[in-house]
TrEMBL record:
SUPFAM superfamilies: Prokaryotic lipoproteins and lipoprotein localization factors. This is Cell envelope biogenesis protein LolA. It holds the Pfam family LolA_2. It comes from Leyella stercorea. Residues 1-23 form the signal peptide. The lineage of its organism: Bacteria, Pseudomonadati, Bacteroidota, Bacteroidia, Bacteroidales.
Amino acid sequence: MRRLFLGIIITMCMAWFGVSTSAAQKNDAAARKILDRTAKVIGRSGGASASFTMSNASTGTVSGTIAIKGNKFNARTSQMTVWYNGKTQWTYMKKNNEVNVSTPTQAQQQMMNPYSFINIYKTGYKMSATTSGANDEVHLVAQNKNKSIAEMYITINRKTGVPSKVKMKHKGKWSTITVSNFSPKSLSNAIFTFNSKDYPTAEVIDLR
């Protein structure tokens, strides 16, 4: 009788874990499907523009506009302008009249480009999705603890596939970026590269 009882318990546990694993896999697949659709919407070949507001404990709240095309972006706020051509980033600081040239990390890109998650979610993250009203919320957790972005929450409009909020954890601290006024456009590649002729008096500092 005891062996029979133990056998029943083991069978029930195996069945429960099997159902849990299946549900997790389905949830992962559903989350990936949502992000795949969003990546197509905002990663259109011609490009797009939007408004954003970023807030975190270090910088407070900053608002501006952004133009994106593939993995390129051009972000503008009242304090700075950032150009990224897919490899090199130029950051113009209005207060100091300086341009810092760098090769940004994943997290540094995300801090200025709320859409950069479309290039990083496909590898190295476990994901799940929940629904809330007209939105889906996708939760990403890095499988590797050394990932610069450890965790993310992305709120996406279910009808349009356009994200409205990205919340990310970097070095134990959370940053939140809200996005609005998403507009598909045909953008020139030139706007993603710094042109020194437009800032003739700026000091250029190469940090690479």
